[in-house]
User: Which sequence fits this backbone?
């Protein structure tokens, strides 16, 4: 199917003003030429898009549906051109990174200084989003590199992966003025639980040991940093990754509670497609590879 972008623009103009003469003027072409282009579009898609029997003209049911498609196609094309333009203005060195919230906050700042060396000077553009959303971003080509937790499918072709590190989800709560934890996990007494959304990666890890503890969910979020704030306020127990609470553990603001088997191992990776990235993207990937080999 060979559809010219100018036909889509013609159709969208006509859909807006519902008048062939006015739409032709807007598109800076003669009315006969404009009408031929609309006819060519209808012939190509195999459907009548304009009801010419009405004054002003109207969209047919197929035309109303195709209007959504045409607008989506034009927006996608303009977005793509805009991204290429931005890359050009910045020397082509933007590297789009999608990252799980906690990794974006705690991992990216540690690797950013290492990326300043090298001839391509990568400029990281980081979006911190839900883990499952981040995976979708990579699968749909919305990012160059994904920083996320273990995902078996992403460790298989057509993807590449680097194991960046390992951590633990620790059950923690705030401490009182004497440095004692405000809560203790036991089967006998229900305690307030600051929980991850059940559908999130972290939530699924905690659900694996849910029947071993006596918890009452009082808050839900997929954001580690938000749960951490509520923990520090003494509002309950949460499973937080160790890298996000190192300072708070060292200062005695929070304490690990519960038996050792409630500490949950997690592994995090960098993922990408096997296809070669642009030079700045390849430099970021090689930097990550170097960091984990040290």
Assistant:
């Amino acid at each position: 199917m060979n559809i010219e972008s100018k036909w889509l623009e013609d159709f969208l103009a006509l859909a807006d003003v519902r008048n062939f003469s006015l739409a032709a003027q807007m598109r800076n072409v003669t009315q006969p030429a404009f009408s031929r282009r609309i006819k060519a579009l209808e012939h190509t898609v195999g459907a009548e898009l304009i009801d010419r029997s009405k004054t002003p003209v109207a969209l047919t049911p197929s035309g109303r549906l195709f209007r959504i498609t045409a607008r989506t196609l034009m927006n996608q094309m303009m977005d793509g051109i805009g991204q290429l333009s931005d890359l050009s203005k910045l020397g082509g060195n933007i590297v789009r990174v999608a990252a799980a919230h906690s990794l974006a906050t705690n991992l990216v700042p540690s690797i950013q200084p290492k990326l300043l060396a090298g001839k391509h000077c990568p400029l990281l553009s980081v979006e911190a989003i839900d883990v499952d959303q981040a995976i979708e971003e990579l699968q749909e080509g919305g990012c160059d590199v994904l920083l996320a937790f273990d995902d078996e499918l992403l460790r298989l072709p057509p993807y590449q992966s680097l194991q960046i590190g390992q951590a633990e989800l620790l059950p923690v709560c705030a401490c009182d003025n004497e440095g004692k934890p405000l809560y203790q996990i036991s089967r006998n007494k229900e305690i307030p639980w600051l929980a991850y959304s059940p559908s999130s990666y972290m939530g699924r890890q905690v659900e694996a040991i849910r029947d071993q503890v006596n918890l009452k969910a009082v808050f839900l979020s997929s954001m580690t940093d938000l749960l951490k704030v509520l923990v520090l306020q003494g509002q309950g127990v949460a499973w937080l990754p160790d890298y996000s609470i190192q300072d708070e553990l060292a200062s005695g603001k929070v304490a690990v509670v519960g038996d050792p088997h409630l500490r949950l191992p997690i592994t995090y990776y960098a993922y990408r497609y096997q296809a070669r990235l642009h030079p700045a993207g390849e430099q970021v990937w090689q930097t990550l590879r170097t960091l984990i080999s040290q």
About this structure: The chain has eleven helices and eleven strands. Residues 194 and 238 are 5 Å apart (CA to CA). Residues 1-83 form a domain with the Arc Repressor Mutant, subunit A fold (CATH 1.10.10.10).
